[in-house]
Amino acid sequence: MYSDATILIVMQETTAFMDMSLAVKAGVQWGLFGGSVASLGTEKHFHMLDKCQTLEVRGCFALTELGTHQLHASACVRYHVMSSELISVAR
Questions:
Q1: For 3, which of 44, 75, 87, 88 is 20 to 30 Å away at the CA?
Q2: Is 75 exposed, middle or buried (0-12, 13-18, 19+ CB in 10 A)?
Q3: Sign of CA dihedral 68, 74, 80, 86
């Protein structure tokens, strides 16, 4: 019998054969965002997991690597409440 992980991998690979951009978006939504909430979240966040699966809550994932082969690079993103947008701010 296949494990849930095996089924998810096969689904992801099959999606990639049809549309790579869709596979990337699915990987970010359910793998990176959903996985981060499931692994690093607290009771305050777990209510989002079911909503993440149905796309009622759409997620994103950001990773910064300060100091890794980037001598003077710095990244900062702020949420602008009035426009409901994430804005990249140069430092």
A1: 44
A2: middle
A3: negative
- Spatial separation of the C-alpha atoms in residues 13 and 58, rounded to whole Å: 22
User: What digits encode the pLDDT tens for the residues 51-64?
Assistant: 888 889 888 877 66
Cα–Cα distance, 34 to 16 (Å, whole number)? 19
- The Cα 39–Cα 42 span in angstroms is 9
CB 37 within 8 A of CB 63: no
Rounded to 5°, the CA angle 66-68-71 comes to 80
